[in-house]
Every structure is written in structure tokens, then in C-alpha cells.
Amino acid sequence: MSAPEEEFYSEERWQNWLDRLREEELDPEDEDSARLLLNLQDDVAIAAAKILNAYDSEAVSESEAVDELADIRDVVLAEPAFDDEDKLMLVDGVQTSLVAVFYSAEQYVADGVADDAPVMEYVRAAVEAEAEEDLDRALGLVAAGGTRVIDGDELDMAVLEEVEYGLVTEWVNGLDSLQSALSDPEVIEDEESGE
Fold it and tell me: I want to staple 138 with a disulfide (CB 3.0 to 4.6 A). Which of 43, 85, 87, 126 is the partner?
């Protein structure tokens, strides 16, 4: 099995982002802090989008795509070593959003596009499942919706306007990053690594 020419994401890249977060004074109400966290999230979503594009163009096989996604997931979802509880909580929010990116991407590669409903219906059903405290089902529905996003279905974030903040809003936020990454997979400059 030949390894893909391109490394989609590295542990070093993730650590560089975390180092930047350690150095910054983070305030989620502050625009610069919010942008830094969103860039961190989008950067990972772009890596996932590149794997999906490589899979769709048959540059990587199904098993290679699944392995690449699992490698990135293991790096990104590992608990970071932060002394600052507030920063740890902010990174945890990003990680929670990215859970949906990984689940959606893996489901898309393994099972294809969920075709029972449009993405918005999956999101509404996930909100209901969360209200019933069925979080596994809620994540499954968000991931199914995510396969629709990967396939080009339009996710309108207005769907969450009336929704109480919770896991589904975090997960759908991740799908929004994935949607942006798929439409414009430009690498976000990570100043620390010089990439």
C-alpha cells in the first residue's frame, strides 16, 4: 500500500496551534481570541476536507482515507496539557465541534451519503434527540447530516437560531467549518510553523 504523497495534518501542526493558545490572552468575547479558536478549528476541518477530496478523486483508497482521518482524530482529540482551566475549556469546545467533522467524514468514506433526508432535517432531528438526552443518536444524526454537507447539501446555520446551546450546536458548528473547508480548502497560515 503506497502512502499518499502529502501529509494531511501533523501532530507538530496541532501542537503549534496549542502553543499559540498558551501564549495568547484568550477571551472568548474578544474578536481576536474567537478568530484564533475558529482558525484552529477550520485548519483541522481543511485537513479533513483534503482527505475527502483525495478519496473522491481516488488519490487515496477507502482504507487510507479512514486511516488518515483516524490519525488526525487521535492527535486533535487527545487531552491537551494546559494549566489554564479556561483555555482547556475553550480547546475542549473546539474539539467537541471537530468530533462531528471526524464522524461525518468517516461515515461518508465508509458508508457514503445518508439519503433519508436533507441536512437541515438531520440537524432538527439531532436537536430533538439531544432534548431527549439521547446523545449517541444526536451525534449519529449530525454525522449523517455531515455526509450530506460533504456531498454538497447546503447547511444554513440559521437552523440553530432558536436552539438552546449544547452539544448539537457545537457539532453543527463543526459541520459549518467543514462546509467552508470543502468550498474553499485554503490552508490557514500557522505563523509558528512557517507553513
Answer: 126
pLDDT per residue, tens digit, the chain (195 aa), is 444 446 899 999 999 999 999 888 888 788 888 899 999 999 999 999 999 999 999 999 999 999 999 999 999 999 998 888 889 999 999 999 999 999 999 999 999 999 999 999 999 999 999 999 999 999 999 999 999 999 999 999 999 998 999 999 999 999 999 999 999 756 555 444 333
Spatial distance between the Cα atoms of 163 and 119, rounded to a whole number of angstroms: 16
Q: Residue 143 is which amino acid?
A: A
Written as nine digits, the cell of 105 is 467524514
Task: Please classify residue 139 by burial: count the beta carbons closer than 10 Å to its beta carbon, then call 0-12 exposed, 13-18 middle and 19+ buried.
Answer: buried
